[in-house]
Amino acid sequence: MADIKTFHLPDLGEGLPDATIVEWHVKEGDYIKLDAPLCSMETAKAVVDVPSPYTGTVKKLYGAPGDIIETGSALADFEPDPNAKQRAEAEATGHHHGPKKSVGSPAPDNANKVVASDEGGEVEAKADREDEGTVVGAMVSGSHVHVEQAASIGGVKAVPAVRALAKKLKVDLARVRPSGADGVVTMQDVKNAAANGSAALGAAPARAVPASAGRHLAPELPQPEPARTPVSLAGKPVRTAPPSVQASGQPEQLKGVRRNMARVMAEAHANVVPTTLVDDADLHAWIGKQDITARLIRAIVAACKAVPALNAWFDGKNLTRTLHPHVDIGIAVDTEDGLFVPALRNADVLDGAGVRAAIKRLRSQVEDRSIPASELSGYTISLSNFGMFAGRYATPVVVPPTVAIIGAGKLCHDVVAVMGGIEVHRRMPISLTFDHRAATGGEAARFLKALLDDLGLPN
């Protein structure tokens, strides 16, 4: 009887409970080599390739593209090739591939859980983790990490994130002209192909049907849906039903970033005692054109130095507070896939040019899903610049262990009373939400004042 091995989805190095299948690189019955790409999986942080733990025949695949697989659940069955060299104890490479431990399993004494994110980013970091996980498609064997490279699948070289984008934009990678080194298809290549329509899926011309062929062989054209009007065909008003009677849409399973955001928001709502203060920063004294985001970052740093209580982490279970001497700012980045919050490290020592360069790099990494998980955690305070789109004031969500988040609203011109009359000043609405368990109202008010004072400086 053949020796069948079941491969369980490993922890992909981000502490998340599940991942979504983006694409299988093999099918049942295929022969695959050790460490060759098995499938691409999407987590809350990135799209990663999961390599094969065996050389042999793929006997069964658990799930189809779009399915959510829990960490520790079966992913694929293999029949290892007895004549091929296999990794020693392939299922014991420093990963936990088996079913997840029960909820009641005791945690190690040195476990140190850190949850740091904002509106959709949760990372659990544990000291001396038992499961080192798979990071960006690389498997750990001993202490050596095999770095992921662009895999050649179907004659096309591309990293998992590029394949995922092509699938999303309905671009045929085989028809995209690569511009990367060594013939690798880049993210920009896929975007260009999607924009000009040069590599659309199914764009190849269909074979002509012979005239002698039966009419029933011709493909039927889709019939347009009848236009919706408030009047029936009989000329009478159409009766409507309340929304609760029938839903017109289809339920959609949350995946990846949005799925994680739902979990994090629920946890934050259950654990934080939020309080919000609002005010307006008067920018009338600004001289010349200035980088608004850089000024916001500088003002937050100044406020953190004036009132360190809000540049902190709070442990609600043990009632401990950690004040940070440095300022790492989590900056919310909105994408079609959901919200990412990369960390702007050491904001307290960056000048305006350094802030702009760092933000540009982080946004670029978020857009192409190449940002490391380490860049999405560990910040000390966060910023949501929602005013780029709309809105004046808000109640941004504070996600543990951080204590505060600043929201910047849409710039506006307001009539302001001054000595002897009125003037029109450009102002920026500011919202400060803080965890009232960790900071007092006085500390929050002084923090907000320090932030507004810095924004009010000429330059």
From TrEMBL:
Residues 74-131, 211-230 are annotated as: Disordered. It comes from the Bacteria. It holds the Pfam family 2-oxoacid_dh. Keywords: Acyltransferase, Lipoyl, Transferase. Its EC number is 2.3.1.-. InterPro entries: 2-oxoA_DH_lipoyl-BS, 2-oxoacid_DH_actylTfrase, 2-oxoacid_DH_E2_comp, Biotin_lipoyl, CAT-like_dom_sf, E3-bd_dom_sf, PSBD, Single_hybrid_motif. Residues 82-94 have a biased composition (Basic and acidic residues). Residues 4-79 form the Lipoyl-binding domain. Transmembrane segments: none annotated. Its cofactor is (R)-lipoate. Residues 157-194 form the Peripheral subunit-binding (PSBD) domain. SUPFAM superfamilies: CoA-dependent acyltransferases, Peripheral subunit-binding domain of 2-oxo acid dehydrogenase complex, Single hybrid motif. Gene3D superfamilies: 2.40.50.100, Chloramphenicol acetyltransferase-like domain, E3-binding domain. Forms a 24-polypeptide structural core with octahedral symmetry. Belongs to the 2-oxoacid dehydrogenase family. This is Dihydrolipoamide acetyltransferase component of pyruvate dehydrogenase complex.
